[in-house]
Specification:
Length: 226
Amino acid sequence: MMKRIVMMGAPGSGKGTWSKFLSDRFSLPHISSGDLFRRELAGDSPLGREIRSYVERGQLVPDDVTIQLIKEVLAEGEGRDGFILDGFPRTIAQAEVLDQILADEGHELDAVIEVEVSEQVIIQRALGRFVCEDCGQPYNTTTMKPVTEDVCDRCGGRIVRRGDDTEETLKLRLETYRVNTAPLTGYYRQKEKLVVFPNDGPPDCQAQRDLLLLLEGRLSFGQGRK
């Protein structure tokens, strides 16, 4: 089974949810750039304050800052034997750096999954989503409510609304994604790594089976689609 997977998708597409599903299914570490950012924000470090200034404006954190965080995590050994990488890379420059990091260790990506969702569904989901402030487990007000209100099923942490989940900020983030991150689909399609996974519906069992079949190469809908 594939071990080194990148999850792509616009803000609110569900890539965090599907990253955790694959992480649990295959016992691979889920390395989320968003979680790394939130760790720095919670510590109110100088780097965290710099990150906050970009996030609150709906802008991407600069490549050099993001690359530094990812390099540190991989250098510490997390993901040495495989990973689900969520939220990185977000630009061509970041993708090239990741390719080089892996090549230096004699590895390469096995697959890049683009979680594809319509903008209308994204906005609806994002305005109703929450996240555990400790482990990053995502929730929403429709299909993924916690068993106990405001308490994470996974770790018992407190569930909070993400500070950047406002309609105005979300629209800025979607535009930023289109400009900066969408070109990655062409980059990875050319490398024959791209798998497109339509995700307008809820994360039900059939969708989970479809995703696994896609990764195993036994289902081909959407692959390489423009």
